[in-house]
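Late entry, written up from scratch paper. The run itself happened at the end of the previous shift, but nothing got recorded in the book at the time, so transcribing now.
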Amino acid sequence: MYEVLTSEQTYKKSLETLEKQFINDNLFTCYLDEFPDGPDSILSNIHEIISVNKRMLEELKSLYDGKVTVESITGIIKSFVDHQFSSYVTYCANTSDQQFSLSQRRLEDSDFDMFLTGREKGLAGQNLQSFLLLPMQRITRMPLLLNAIRKKTDDNSPDKEPLDELHRDVASIVNKCNEGVRQAETRRHMADLEKKCEFIKIKKQLTSFTDKPDRLIIKEENVYILKFKSGKMMGSKINMWLFTDCLVIGLTDPKNESKIMLTEYSPRQLIKISPHFFPPSSYKKKLEPERIFHLQLLSPDKKFIIQCGSANNKAAWIEALKKKETENEDETIYEEWDVPLVQAKHHYEKINDDDLELAEGEICRVLKKYTDGWCFGQRESDGQQGWFPMTFMVEIDSDHAKYREMIKKQKLLDKLANDEKAAEFFSTMKKD
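Output as recorded:
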């Protein structure tokens, strides 16, 4: 328990050094004002982080004036986790951009770099970047400190359950921090990728990877499109990216490997896959079906045979491309990128605690739908989630509704085509 206090004290001293050497320096502030987003480009919400540390340390120190117990320490940390630690999630999500902006500026601005180098002298080899990483390092160490206390707490102790709950809550905060970092790094990768790509062939559907804040790359790989003709096989190397809301295919320019021509685009709703591949009977050479799958884009209707680098890569693509499934026949689960939108026809007053009260005209995203007429969804205005009866709602225009109709049309066309093939086959049989 003592280590919780001492480590927080050490953390505070490091933050004070950051304040003294950099944040409170007027010239440093002047340099930061020249950044596109001002001081926030580098400091983010560091002032909130410093404030949280000071207040939590004060409350922990107050315990040592009286009786220190696991319950008292747990209670203080729990209070800050519930109401203050969201500041860490915000800060960590900005860490990647923060480090990149700072490194770039030091390379481009020799005066700024010389100023920082001067301020960094006497800091035991540490630089500004390492000080700005302190909050990330601190929050990721917190579960380890709590786990050490858990191991020393008897399983039958009344402190065990609250301590376990606190450990789970802190671990959840750390997961959100790590996810924020991952998403930020993915967005930077997308921005760099966008600079290499030519959107001319798909400009009606897509002109940028970064135009939607919630779009991320889910999976990417260089794969081959296989084509079979007259007993021969041809393979073309392509780039394939699965984003949160769409699939994009591109070809690397053979004359300039730093350029990629994007050739195919499809919303995720209009993708069909089949993991089973059987080579045509006319092709006699050995293939590896465990690396190959069928990909169909429904609008316009295009079919591809995709060969991945390995069986594991194929399995990962199939898993990423398939829609959510449920064993409950009465339940329909919608993907985050393919939700119906509904609007309240009348005011719905909540009956149960987990219901979602809705004013007339409010719009909701349907996340789950059940055959008994109830839905679980998210209110568009504030993100609040809960249950509501579909009898109070009416579906409105959305991508989900538009693509659902396109899929129905494609199924009808496929059926007509199959009927025509069947009719032609039986007609041939009769002639014979």
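The chain has a mean pLDDT of 91.
(Scratch paper discarded after transcription.)
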